[in-house]
């Protein structure tokens, strides 16, 4: 692929540009179809949503306005007047329905210092988000006139608007922060403007093209806002890294005295192959997320696969063409200080820091293995206390957020589960005596259980033969009491009442039910996903390097880095240790989808460094070096590029750690920590120490595995006469290199 692109430079470059433009244009024209509520959640929640969707019943977005005073009560005329103003202001917008005054509904706190004005916002969930700003403005105007009282609005539409706006702002901030960061790091790595810009341009064009392709595919696989964020996160990281690997090897070969064509051919056969193996590994790892059965994960998985495949395609086609076209002009725009700094150590030298680390590691590999392994196990230790949960609205938002403050005030004034469980009943005849009796029996049993309380509200849709029963649960909505109440409702009360009527469906939904079902789905998916990813990563490494030792080492080291990342996540976000440094606080749990997502992403991305480093070690070994010397040369010669690539990934992921949503923070910090550990402790200490201990056993392959497919590459390149080949420096017999 590299040779073809170098010979057909214009075709490769203009073909890539045409592909990017067409994909972006067609994707924009086609538009994106987002995941529906029925698709987004598993279990009974999905069944309930599907029943309501098929019947055309839209659950309106509920809103509440809290009116409170420290001195006045709901019975005081001045307080009553403010409530009347709120009712008039909300009604006057023309965007609401079903408004209930607290004096009619009884939504007055026990101490009578707070009331709730309840209503719904017109339209479906998307339209409600568009309609709610007018209502928020009307409520804010009342608050402005009465500073001595509290007048705050909270509900599904207002919180949905905040989340939507925040996602857009965060996404834009991530783009404008991550790209300059990557460019700045590349300027330091290359010391030249053209060489630094190339990887960023390739990554951005790959992201743009992938976005168009994902939009075109939403006809059969719906997408989500989270998928777009993850696609940017992974696309920028791998796109820059792949280009960096390729470009650094081509520059290194040119510096060793090779002609431009040979340098490009070697870069294609070595770094190009490493990019291909790494890309395939990321794709296979991400495919494991399809086993979760959750549409959100499938959307993120598909978007990531598309952007990785696009980045690999660009790295193996348009990048060689551009390097052939530019030649040594890729070093144009040198920044004198940075360029001199970069050239103070040769690529094979590894630099003073890496030499200082590597020398004692190779001298005492057993001690290095025990110390580094013990350190990672210690960092991973908090993992045993990890508690996962589908974080509540209040846990997701930043501390001090206005919506969180309002939610806390409402809960203080009106304690109890903020959102009831809803039993969605579908029957052959919803008005039949049997169903009427069953609903009455359900209400009586729910109140008698002591785990649910009133008022229990029943809404009947006779034309669709559907009814909904709202049952308030004990607890806060996401605690043990609420979960126990939900289990009682689902496992005892509904089967003993509604399900005794033949042909009746009665799934239970609601926020507590959604969290419970999602957590169960995640827990049940862990083992299949982990097994799939580990097995296929092992098989890919085995067939790529034809070595049992290399494959086993890769899997074990990756598991160690993932375990360490889990430990840091648990310590910071669950227990709150150091959370204030990140502008957050411990929330008592790790978001339920984050551990599985991190495992899949990290197992794929860790192969970036592993394949690149081990390929260089194997290349040196195939030239005739003993394993110890091959390990030393491989680690030192890749130290610069691995450091640069890791710094870029850590910087990009750390940007996501600064975003507003708690789940995004956890994802960004988890990825940044894991990559940092992977590129330093794993690749700089554990990998060379373990490979040195294994010696020639690194390359062992049992005879019965000879039948496996052989994905190794055997093209040979002669070193130039004056190149500092490792075998010549060490006095070893030189052989043709088998890459």
Q: Keywords for this structure?
A:
739 residues; 26 helices; alpha+beta; four-stranded antiparallel β-sheet; elongated
Oligomer state of the chains in this structure: single chain
Number of DSSP helical runs: 26
Runs in which pLDDT lies below 50 for 5 or more consecutive residues are 344-348, 720-739
Main sheet: strand order: 2-3-1-4
If you average the pLDDT, what whole number results? 83
End-to-end Cα distance, whole Å, is: 16 Å
Which descriptor suits the 3D outline? elongated
Strand count, sense and closure of the main sheet?
A: 4 strands, antiparallel
Strand content: 5-15%
- Bin the helical content: 55-70%
Write down how many β-strands occur, each being a DSSP E stretch of 2 or more residues: 12
Q: Structural class given helices, strands, pairing?
A: alpha+beta
Radius of gyration: 30 Å
What would you say this structure looks like, in words?
Strands 2-3-1-4 form a four-stranded antiparallel sheet, sandwiched between helices. A four-stranded antiparallel sheet has the order 7-8-6-9, sandwiched between helices. It has helices at 2-7, 9-30, 37-40, 43-54, 77-92, 102-105, 125-145, 156-190, 193-217, 225-255, 260-287, 295-316, 318-326, 336-342, 351-363, 365-380, 393-396, 402-413, 433-449, 480-496, 511-545, 548-574, 594-622, 627-656, 662-694, 726-729; strands spanning 61-68, 96-100, 114-121, 150-155, 388-389, 421-426, 457-461, 466-471, 508-509, 590-591, 716-717, 737-738. The chain is α+β, with helices and mostly antiparallel strands. A hairpin with a 4-residue loop joins strand 7 (457-461) and strand 8. 52% of the residues are buried. It has 26 helices and twelve strands.
């Amino acid at each position: 692929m590299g040779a073809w692109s170098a010979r057909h430079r214009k075709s490769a470059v203009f073909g890539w540009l045409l592909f990017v433009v067409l994909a972006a244009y067609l994707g924009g024209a086609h538009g994106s179809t987002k995941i529906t509520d029925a698709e987004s959640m598993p279990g009974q929640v999905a069944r309930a949503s599907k029943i309501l969707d098929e019947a055309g019943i839209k659950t309106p977005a509920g809103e509440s306005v809290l009116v409170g005073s420290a001195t006045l009560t709901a019975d005081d005329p001045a307080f009553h007047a403010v409530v009347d103003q709120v009712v008039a202001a909300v009604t006057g917008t023309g965007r609401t329905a079903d408004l209930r005054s607290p004096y009619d509904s009884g939504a007055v706190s026990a101490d009578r210092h707070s009331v709730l004005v309840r209503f719904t916002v017109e339209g479906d969930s998307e339209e409600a988000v568009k309609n709610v700003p007018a209502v928020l403005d009307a409520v804010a105007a009342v608050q402005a006139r009465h500073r001595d009282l509290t007048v705050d609005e909270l509900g599904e539409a207002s919180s949905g608007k905040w989340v939507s706006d925040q996602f857009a702002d965060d996404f834009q901030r991530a783009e404008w922060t991550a790209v300059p960061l990557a460019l700045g790091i590349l300027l330091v790595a290359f010391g030249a403007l053209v060489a630094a810009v190339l990887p960023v341009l390739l990554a951005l064009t790959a992201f743009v093209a992938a976005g168009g392709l994902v939009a075109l595919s939403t006809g059969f696989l719906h997408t989500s806002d989270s998928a777009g964020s993850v696609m940017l996160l992974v696309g920028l990281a791998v796109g820059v890294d792949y280009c960096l690997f390729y470009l650094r090897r081509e520059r290194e070969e040119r510096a060793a005295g090779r002609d431009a064509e040979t340098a490009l051919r070697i870069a294609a056969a070595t770094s190009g192959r490493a990019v291909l193996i790494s890309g395939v590994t990321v794709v296979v790892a991400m495919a494991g997320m399809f086993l979760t059965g959750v549409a959100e994960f499938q959307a993120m998985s598909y978007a990531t696969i598309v952007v990785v495949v696009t980045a690999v395609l660009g790295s193996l086609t348009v990048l060689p063409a551009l390097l052939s076209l530019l030649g040594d002009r890729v070093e144009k725009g040198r920044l004198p200080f940075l360029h001199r700094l970069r050239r103070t150590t040769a690529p094979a030298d590894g630099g003073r820091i890496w030499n200082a680390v590597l020398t004692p590691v190779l001298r005492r590999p057993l001690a290095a293995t025990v110390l580094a392994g013990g350190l990672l196990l210690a960092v991973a230790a908090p993992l045993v206390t990890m508690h996962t949960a589908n974080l509540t609205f209040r846990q997701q938002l930043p501390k001090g957020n206005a919506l969180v403050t309002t939610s806390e005030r409402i809960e203080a004034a009106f304690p109890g589960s903020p959102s009831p469980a809803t039993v969605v009943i579908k029957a052959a005849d919803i008005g039949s005596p049997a169903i009427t009796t069953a609903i009455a029996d359900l209400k009586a049993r729910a109140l008698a259980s002591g785990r649910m309380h009133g008022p229990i509200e029943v809404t009947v849709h006779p034309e669709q033969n559907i009814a909904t029963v709202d049952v308030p649960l004990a607890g806060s909505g996401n605690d043990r009491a609420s979960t126990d109440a939900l289990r009682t409702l689902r496992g005892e009360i509904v089967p003993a009442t509604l399900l005794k009527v033949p042909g009746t469906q009665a799934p239970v939904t609601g926020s507590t039910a959604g969290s419970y079902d999602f957590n169960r789905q995640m827990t049940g998916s862990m083992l299949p996903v982990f097994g799939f990813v580990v097995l296929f990563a092992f098989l890919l490494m085995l067939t790529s390097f034809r070595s049992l030792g290399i494959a086993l080492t890769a899997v074990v080291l990756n598991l160690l880095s993932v375990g360490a990342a889990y430990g840091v996540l648990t310590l910071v976000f669950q227990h709150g240790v150091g959370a204030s440094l990140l502008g957050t606080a411990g929330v008592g749990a790790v978001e339920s989808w984050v551990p599985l997502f991190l495992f899949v992403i990290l197992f794929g991305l860790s192969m970036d460094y592993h394949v690149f480093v081990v390929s260089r070690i194997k290349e040196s070994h195939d030239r005739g070096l003993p394993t110890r010397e091959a390990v030393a040369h491989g680690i030192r010669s890749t130290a610069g590029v691995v450091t640069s690539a890791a710094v870029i990934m850590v910087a990009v992921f750390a940007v996501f750690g600064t975003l507003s949503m708690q789940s995004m923070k956890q994802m960004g910090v988890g990825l940044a920590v894991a990559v940092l550990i992977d590129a330093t402790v794993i690749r700089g200490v554990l990998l060379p120490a373990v490979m040195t201990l294994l010696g020639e056993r690194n390359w062992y392959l049992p005879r019965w595995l000879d039948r496996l497919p052989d994905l190794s590459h055997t093209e040979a390149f002669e070193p130039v006469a004056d190149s500092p080949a490792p075998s010549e420096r060490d006095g070893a017999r030189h052989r043709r290199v088998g890459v």
